[in-house]
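Data availability excerpt. The first of two example chains:
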Amino acid sequence: MTRVSREFGNTMQKEAASAVSADVIFASSRFPNYKIGANNQVVDAKEDPKVLTMKEVVARETALLLEQQKRLSVRDLASKFEKGLAAAAKLSEEARLREAASLEKHVLLKKLRDALESLKGRVAGRNKDDVEEAIAMVEALAIQLTQREGELLQEKTEVKKLANFLKQASEDAKKLVDEERAHCRAEIESARAAVQRVEEALQEQEQISRASGKQDLEELMKEVQEARRIKMLHQPSKVMDMEHELRALRIQLAEKSKHSLLLQKELARSKRMEKNISHIYELDGAETLGSYLRIKPCSDIAPELAECSIQWYRISSETSKKELISGASKSVYAPEPFDVGRILQVEIIYDGQLIVLTTAGAIDPAAGLGNYVEALVRKHDVEFNVVVSQMNGADHPSESIHVLHVGKMRMKLCKGKTTIVKEYYSSSMQLCGVRGGGNAAAQALFWQAKKGFSVVLAFESERERNAAIMLARRFAFDCNIMLAGPDGGFSIGTK
């Protein structure tokens, strides 16, 4: 029996290893784990159950794609097909790499078998049996590797088919997406056209309904007015009866007031005649707010009023206190709201002779003025159309329309969008009726907005003028300011 030393075995292993490693490139750094099964079959070691084979991965992905195909949109389906195509390409690349690795394994097994054959002729005894067993194992590995190569070729064919299928499906999906997109665009355009037609029809219908509704409303208003007129003609209401009665009573009261005034004047004239007082002048005009009083000569020997000194006073009917009216030194005086309920008196001095004229009674308020002012008080700002007659004592040539704003906190005079003056209520502000100036005095007022700026404003009517004075004084009183006339005289002109 031939004896093999340990050194000889080590030498043979080194030779075999060097012979194999010279021409072979290993795919991994370690040799695969194999086990010998029954009938000398090589069996792979159990791998991690979590790692799936390539065939299982392909089948799983295909099943998922087929399962999700029904519930995915066209765009998502195309995206999934593209992902599947990429996965198929990746699997094809992996199969190519595995084919290369398999070829390397064949070369490795062939070289290993050649090495073992050369070693078999050099050893004897038990070592020779080990070498023969190793040769049988290598042959079994080669057979198993050949089977695996067949399986890989089959998987490669399936992968190619799947890739072609996914590629075709991707192209079909893209084509379907393009068709659906074109169809959707056509539907959108048709929907827009339909919406536009509906909007135009609605606008036309709205215009027609507005025109017909306006015409129907006008006809209905005319019919209602006609019905009211017929009803009032045939069945007058109690309110209309009361209004007619009040109007008649007012007319009767005005006539009686005029008659009473004439009687009082006649009585005063008779008393003066009894006292042998020469009746040279008398007061002419209605003794009510909104009118004006004029000194009228009633004798041929009466001197000219321009040569006389004139001064108006207001006398309290309760205390008989006489109050001088500043600036009222003309032959004409228009009562203002302060004069309501008081007696007016005028003193005429000529050549040292004093002539005193008084009204027959207290100045009466204007009918309906109080209710009119109460209605205006509810507003935050009240506008009056005026004309500026004088500004800072000088005549104002322009007769353009201005707007006087009487507010709760301030007064403002505007011309169009331009503000001429705007001032809050203060102690330096003055407001009163114009004292003198003929017939226009009953429609004009004097307003000193601040020191150095004053105007005379002419209103459209006596009622507007007196309402503006009463309203401004009421708002100023709420601000603890008392609006009164000037200390000096002021008038529109000499009369």
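And the second chain:
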Amino acid sequence: MGYLTQLGAITTALLASATPSSGASASSSTAKNVICACRKLSNVLPKDIIYPGSANYTDEATDSYWDKRAALAPSCIVVPNSADEVATAVEAISSCNAPFAVRGGGHMNVVGSNNINNGVLIGLTKLNQVKVNADTVEVGPALTWYDVYAALEPYGRVAIGGRLKTIGVPGLTLIGGYHYFNNKYGFAMDNVDSYDVVLGNGTQVTATRSSHPDLFWALKGGGGNNFGVVTKLVLRTYPAPQVSTTIQAFNESAVPGFLAAVCDAAKLNSPDPIAAGMVATVSYNVSSGVTSASLLGVQEGVSNPPDQFANFSSISSFAINNVTNMKDWAGQFETPKQQFRIQFAHRTIKADAAVLTSLYESWKESLSEVLDVEGLGPTFVANVISPTSVRVGNNNGVGNIWGLPEEPLIIWQFSTSWSLARDDRRMQNWARTVVERLHAQNKRKGVASEYIYMGDAGDWQDAFAGMPKKNVARLKRVQAAYDPERVFTRLSTGGFKLT
């Protein structure tokens, strides 16, 4: 009965935070609802509940997150062992009207999207099942993409998922999902055959093309916390026993040519493309004031060097080419947890080398405003959306919520890290001001797209504003049908929400 002592301490802390001077009755009501939920969870899932001060609390509330800003202080944490226990937890929390968050891989860096202060955290840590079938793989939401690639490697197959080692499966898949092979197989969302979902009232459903097809569609890019908790995904897999890889570096003088090569990649429109894609970044060295670019490229099959990156190879200052497998490739690129504070912000343009270079130059110039920020690590990222990658979703009979045209686009992104919490607001204001000013210029030039990718966006950005209005209206109808009590709107408020 040790949890009763912990619950008593939480009760005192929560009620103390809800004094009249800090917001009065609403705060007091919320605090009581959280106490209600923690007490119910302690009764129905006594082996799964964790309180502050418990042995695993820091692991679940802090160490499981990539961005240091995401380390919050939930009042209690429930770590279910199964989908049934997730359903029990959601039902208990919603019956108390308690605020909550859900964490899968913990990589999403929109603060509050997967953790919570003074509420309940559902940690999906133990839902780490994986089962390889002939041409699919069944995965739990606790897995990283490296876990998936490792499970598939003995079978010579690959799933369409994250490009770096520690990115989680559910977050990336539910917001759309970039992979090296998007140009041939579409995005991660286009390669999901089914979702097991716990709804806001604790009901469990399996959404497929033929069962709950409206929810199936809505989960293809609609975000992870608008409809329910996904407890299992079935993903299509493809033969890829070997991949050809390249790691390239580029001097500052080659950056314009590098960005032109990125735009060229976006314009490729073969009816039968070779699967190939990249991570393309430009970094600024705060100490030296010098920028340099880097390419991580992967191509299906054996080609050493991989010929789909010839435009880059001709101007790079350094290259390492190899033939390997997706597991070993992804295993090289760790994104350490709890090392930095990370802010994303992005907009989208039609693929145009001159415009992209101008954006890079404006980004570099704007850094003068924040060079005194401790631990500053600025990166300019360019992600490719090719006509062929969009065509997959448009032609598969289901579609996805993005509704993009089949035209070459570039997501240009600021990815910025820093050290201290005192600079959080300043860095957000800087990114927001510069990104929106540049986007306004691009709109006047007629080269802007309103599409926003949740995975690269800032927390102030409206990820649904750039989607077709008819798709947003359909999403809201699906939300009303599957979450009529608006549990995932009222109580799970973090992340990109349908409103």
